[in-house]
Structures are given as C-alpha cells and as structure tokens.
C-alpha cells in the first residue's frame, strides 16, 4: 500500500485494506503463545500476540487464531463495528498512510448493540474509543459529515457541506437505518425509532408509566420490550408474524420467548397507546451510491467478494451494508445486520428442519438448523460454548451431519447430556 496515500475510511468494520491481495492467504508467525500441550483438542484459549488479543482454537489437531471479539453485549469479549475495526487494524498492521473516518453522527464510534439494553446510558459511556485514541493513532475523525455521492473514476467523495475528498482506497461501511412505518401518523412526535443514543434515552423516558406499543418482534423490538417491561404501565406488541423471532430463529424458539400476552393483530381494533416504538427492520444506507458504478443487489446492498472488494477497484465495503458470500452456506450471498461473528452464529435462513437438544421449557437448549441434512446454523440458551463450537466448525467449511446433530454424544460441543 502506498504509504503517502490518503486512506479514506467511512464508518465501521474490518475489511482487509492491506492491498496486496496475493499475499493475503499467507500465514505469518509472530509470537510463541503457548505450548502445544496447553490446548487440548476442542478447546479455546485467549492469548496475546504482540499487541493483539486473539482467540486460539484447536479443532481436530488444527489450530486457528480468530478475533477475540464476541458479538453479543454482555459476553466477555467485545469491540467495535466496521470502520473503526478497519482503521485500528490498519494501524496495528503498521500502515502509515493517512486515515480519515467519516460519519454523519455527532458521536465518536459507539457500541450500537447497547442501545436496546442500557437505554438511558450516557453517550460517553457507549464510546468504543476516546478521542485520545484517535490522536495517538493518527486517525482523523470527521463527524457530522454526510457523504452524498461518490465518483469512482475521479476517486472522490462529495459531502453535504460541498467538500470533495479524494481517496486512494475507500471502505464504505454506512450500515443500515431503521425502517419507518408506512402509514398515516408515522411521523407523529410520539412514534419513536431506535438508532442513536438520543433515541434510546427518548424511549426510556417516554416508556415510564406509559401504555407502550411496540411494532416488530425481532431483536430490537423484543429487546426494548424486555427493557421497558418494568417501567411501562403496559406493553402491547404488534407483529406481522405469529411469534417473536419467527423469521430469524424459527417458531419453536419464538414460542419460548413470548412474554407478553394479548398481542393484537391487524383486525381494525384500535389500541390505546402513549408511546409507539417501531423496530421493523432496516434499509441500507446506500442512497449516495446511486449513479455510481458500484454494483448493488435488488435491495440496494453493496455486492462484495470474500475480500470485501466491490466490483470497482480500490472500493471496499463492509458491515451491514454488504451482500457477501457466506462460506458456511456454500458461498450463497447474504446480508446480515449483526455484530461480527454473531452474524454467523445466528444465521439460519432457509433451513428445512430443526433438531433440538434439551427443552425450551427449561430455558436450556441447543437448536440445530438443517438444510439438506446438513447443519447450517445453531441457536442456544445457557449452553455455552456450544454455539461457538458449531460456528467455528462451519466457518472452517466442515460439514456437521444430521446424524451428528441427533447423536446423544455432545462431548464435541463440550456439553453434558441435555
Ligand atoms: C438497537 C440496536 C441493537 C442491536 N443489538 C445487537 C446485538 O445485540 N448483537 C448484534 O450482533 N448486533 C446488534 N445490532 C446490530 C449492530 O449494531 C450492527 O450489525 C452493526 O452496528 C453494523 O455495523 P456497521 O459498521 O455496518 O454499521 P453501523 O454501526 O450502523 O455504522 C454506520 C455508520 O455510518 C454512518 N452513515 C450512514 N450513512 C452515511 C453517509 N451517507 N455519510 C456518512 N456517514 C454515514 C452512520 O451514521 C453510522 O455512524 C443492533 C443494532 C441496533 C440498532
């Protein structure tokens, strides 16, 4: 990579901008971290390699080092989303060129996943890195600046204030925005959506003692319901599906998570509410790419290959905005709005059968999702680290058969009988 070049990174996740793609598959030993005997087959261990903290996994005698970033808030290991991760990695890998991170937000990169879990948090407490970090690492951060177009021939991006910035290489990681309700009244003041720390605080205070209606029963809607349940005077959840999480995790798990009775379906009945919270999915933030030659799919997600390269040279894309080939589903193209590997863990679209270990009622279970007699995903509750073990195997491209999923021997998942 040209060390004098401007390096231009728009908001979040790691895409490998180390340019020299030929060398990408090569392994590099940088440190001795433990003796072979310290890590038995099937075990994982957190180790330090230079300044990096990585997870070392041994599976059938093969060692793999993966990022220590666990995606779910509350897990011991956590970090940031796309562009921050990319900028940090570039510096860790000794990239000396100029790095600019741009966001239309007015806040430094923050942990978005906490918005639905700690809704009255101070913005400061959500930050993934403080300003000193960016100064120390010579990463420029431009806030309150919105990209309005990109010219991939001239290699420039134009911003809402008229500024035109050139780049040598660009990572587009503008994520997605929450979908609005498409009905009269959707723009009224007490119809709230959850995207920013300000939104979260607004919802927190609005829910207090209020009759609260939540539209949407996937992660955001259900997490807000769980958060607000002790504060609101009532919570009514409206869903287009019969059960929560039905689309993502299937009806069986949806049933377990039902916690509010009296969900009212489209029937003409008017529900009284003081607050209406909308969490019905997302739309990609790719409007500014229209008119550029960057290929997008029919839903306007940016198409990338496994190296996060778009069809245009020097233009990369990462994070929620991408449509990328997922190895564990045979290279099928997917878009997943989830924090890093949580993506892989939770992905079960298109499954045809579910094999259940344990019982939903005991709140301790492991569900395998199968397609053509092969496991394509898993979801679990109180069975750590089984889901991670499955994800690791799938990520390595190894098949988990139906027979393995059905077997009573769960030792490979580090589980006793369920
Ligand atoms: C309430 C909530 C709870 C969540 N909880 C979880 C969870 O528990 N587990 C999990 O795995 N995932 C969770 N997610 C999803 C997770 O936050 C996303 O997958 C992740 O943030 C995606 O990272 P990203 O870098 O692609 O985009 P983002 O983190 O969304 O970053 C995109 C950035 O680009 C900026 N931007 C957009 N358009 C422009 C433009 N034109 N010009 C300049 N800047 C622009 C945005 O303002 C933003 O700063 C949650 C999401 C929400 C909203």
Give the % helix.
10-25%
CATH superfamily of the largest domain: FAD/NAD(P)-binding domain
Please name the CATH architecture of the largest domain. 3-Layer(bba) Sandwich
Spatially, the strands of the biggest sheet line up as: 6-5-1-10-18
Count of structural domains:
3
Distinct ligands: flavin-adenine dinucleotide
CATH structural class of the largest domain:
Alpha Beta
Integer average pLDDT: 78
Distance between the terminal alpha carbons, to the nearest Å?
51 Å
Q: What's the CATH topology label of the largest domain? A: FAD/NAD(P)-binding domain
Total number of helices: 10
How would you sum up the global shape? globular
Helix- and strand-based class?
Answer: alpha/beta
Biggest sheet descriptor: 5 strands, parallel
Using DSSP, what is the number of strands? 23
Q: Classify the beta-strand content into a percent band.
A: 25-35%
Low-confidence segments: 1-27, 68-80, 259-263, 340-348
Radius of gyration: 22 Å
Domain Rieske: 31-86
Protein name: Rieske domain-containing protein
Organism: Triplophysa tibetana
Family: Belongs to the FAD-dependent oxidoreductase family.
């Amino acid at each position: 990579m040209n060390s004098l070049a401007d390096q231009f990174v728009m908001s979040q996740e790691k895409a490998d901008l180390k340019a020299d793609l030929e060398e990408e598959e090569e392994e590099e030993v940088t440190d001795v971290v433990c003796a072979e005997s310290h890590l038995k087959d099937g075990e994982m261990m957190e180790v330090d390699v230079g300044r990096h903290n990585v997870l070392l996994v041994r599976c059938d005698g093969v060692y793999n080092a993966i990022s220590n970033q666990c995606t779910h808030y509350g897990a011991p290991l956590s970090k940031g989303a796309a562009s921050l991760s990319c900028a940090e990695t570039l510096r860790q890998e000794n990239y000396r060129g100029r790095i600019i991170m741009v966001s239309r937000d007015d806040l430094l990169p923050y942990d978005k996943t906490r918005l639905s879990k700690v809704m009255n948090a101070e913005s400061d407490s959500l930050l993934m890195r403080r300003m000193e970090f960016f100064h120390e690492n010579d990463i420029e951060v431009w806030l309150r600046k919105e990209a309005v177009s990109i010219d991939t021939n001239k290699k420039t991006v134009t911003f809402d204030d008229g500024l035109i910035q050139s780049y040598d290489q660009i990572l587009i990681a503008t994520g997605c925005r929450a979908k609005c309700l498409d009905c009269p009244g959707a723009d009224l003041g007490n119809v709230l959506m959850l995207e920013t720390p300000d939104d979260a605080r607004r919802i927190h205070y609005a829910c207090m003692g209020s009759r609260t209606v939540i539209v949407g029963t996937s992660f955001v809607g259900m997490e807000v319901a769980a958060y607000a349940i002790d504060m609101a005077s009532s919570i009514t959840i409206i869903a287009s599906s019969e059960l929560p999480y039905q689309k993502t995790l299937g009806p069986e798990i949806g049933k377990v998570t039902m916690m509010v009775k009296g969900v009212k379906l489209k029937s003409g009945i008017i529900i009284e509410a003081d607050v209406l919270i909308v969490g019905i999915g997302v739309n990609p933030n790719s409007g500014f790419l229209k008119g550029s030659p960057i290929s997008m799919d029919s839903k306007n997600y940016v198409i990338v290959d496994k190296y996060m390269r778009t069809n245009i040279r020097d233009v990369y894309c990462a994070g929620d905005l991408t449509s990328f080939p997922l190895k564990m589903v045979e290279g099928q193209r997917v878009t997943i709005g989830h924090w890093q590997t949580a993506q892989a863990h939770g992905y079960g679209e298109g499954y045809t059968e579910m094999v259940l270990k344990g019982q939903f009622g005991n709140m301790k279970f492991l569900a395998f999702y199968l397609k053509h007699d092969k496991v394509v995903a898993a979801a679990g509750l109180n069975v750590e680290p089984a889901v991670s073990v499955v994800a690791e195997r799938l990520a390595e491209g190894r098949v988990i058969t139906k027979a393995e999923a059905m077997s009573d021997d769960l030792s490979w998942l580090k589980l006793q009988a369920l």
